Amino acid sequence: MFSPENAARKSLCGGKPDPLQTQGVTCQEDPSGGNLWDTFQLLQIDVDCESSRDQFTSNENGCSRNVLRKQRHWEKIVSAKRSKRKLERERRKAKHAEGKGSAHQLSKRELKLITKERLLGARETGPWLCIDLSMTSNMTQKETSRLATQIRRLYGSNKKAERPFWISLTGFVENSPIYEACLRMNDGFANYLMDVTPESYLDLFPSKTIVYLTPDAEDALEEVDPHKVYILGGLVDESIQKSLTLHKAQREHLQTVRLPIQEYMVKNANAKNYHSTTLAVNQVFDALLSFHATKSWEEALKAAVSPGKGYVLREETI
Ligand SMILES: C[S@@+](CC[C@H](N)C(=O)[O-])C[C@H]1O[C@@H](n2cnc3c(N)ncnc32)[C@H](O)[C@@H]1O
């Protein structure tokens, strides 16, 4: 009858009738429970007892001293391996127990709840941010798609922030190209925790609380005031429609500010001699979020103004 034990012996002895067994010798059992054949199999040693016996002097059990010496040698190795594995198991167990004892790891559900609470908290306390999507009708399809992507990134940054803003998409008209692009390109857009409305920010907030961010403003933004509403122009153009938002905000008698890039950064010498202080909406928002959390413009601008804009922090030039 086939049994692993028999098969083992057969293989150990080169497939021939087991000379050890025929002489009343069973293959030695490993003291720790495993069959010695396992050991040989593990170490890929193929020992032919008969040929060994031919070459060396046999002991009283019929196996040569050489084979027994080898057996003892490999037994030692296997036993060392076994102890190493045991130690490794114990180390893993200890590490696991240590992890359980330390700070409670938040589940996905708990994290989602915290995010929701933070966002809803910002709706109550501010600061508020609107993306003005009333100027998107002249944008190309490519620009519209880029803007939808920037809105997704902006929302993603806000969700991760410890001190988020409450976001509104204003001038957001149902079935418009930007509406379609947001739904098509941004997974879960319908469930974003933000306000969306076709109305203008002028209909939603008192004018004196509104601050329009535009790269062409004269004054630099100094503080993020939780009682103000910050407006970003929903545009991706950088040169064609220069000063578009500045002129719009001026017509609406709103305060206008720019990021303090010139105050904290200097032009970097670069091969293309390209320098621009006009950022994408999500980059401007990242600067606002970072400043709101750290109160450091250096930190905020370093994170938001990419090297491609041709500006570096003043301190980096020293
Ligand atoms: C790609 S820019 C559009 C620039 C466009 N020429 C304009 O007239 O606003 C998108 C929006 O990001 C904001 N923005 C970009 N760079 C800015 C900066 N340096 N300071 C303040 N706001 C900025 C503005 O709200 C701007 O409308």
Automatic annotation (TrEMBL):
Please name the InterPro entries in this protein's record.
MT_TRM10-typ, MT_TRM10-typ_sf, Trm10_B_MTase_dom, tRNA_m1G_MeTrfase_euk
**Which BP terms from GO are recorded?**
tRNA N1-guanine methylation
**Region described as Disordered: spans on this chain:** 1-25, 79-106
User: Where is there biased composition of kind Basic and acidic residues?
Assistant: 87-106
Reaction equation(s) it catalyzes = guanosine(9) in tRNA + S-adenosyl-L-methionine = N(1)-methylguanosine(9) in tRNA + S-adenosyl-L-homocysteine + H(+)
Segments traversing the membrane: none
Query: Which Gene Ontology molecular function entries are recorded, alphabetically?
Result: tRNA (guanosine(9)-N1)-methyltransferase activity; tRNA binding
Keywords tagged on the record: Coiled coil, Methyltransferase, S-adenosyl-L-methionine, Transferase
Which cellular component appears as one GO term in the record? nucleus
Q: Specify the domain of life of the species encoding this protein.
A: Eukaryota
UniProt domain SAM-dependent MTase TRM10-type: residue ranges: 115-312
Q: Known EC number(s)?
A: 2.1.1.221
What does it do? Answer: S-adenosyl-L-methionine-dependent guanine N(1)-methyltransferase that catalyzes the formation of N(1)-methylguanine at position 9 (m1G9) in tRNAs. Probably not able to catalyze formation of N(1)-methyladenine at position 9 (m1A9) in tRNAs.
- What name does UniProt use for this protein? tRNA methyltransferase 10 homolog B
Organism the protein comes from:
Anolis carolinensis (Green anole)
The uppermost taxa in this organism's lineage are:
Eukaryota, Metazoa, Chordata, Craniata, Vertebrata
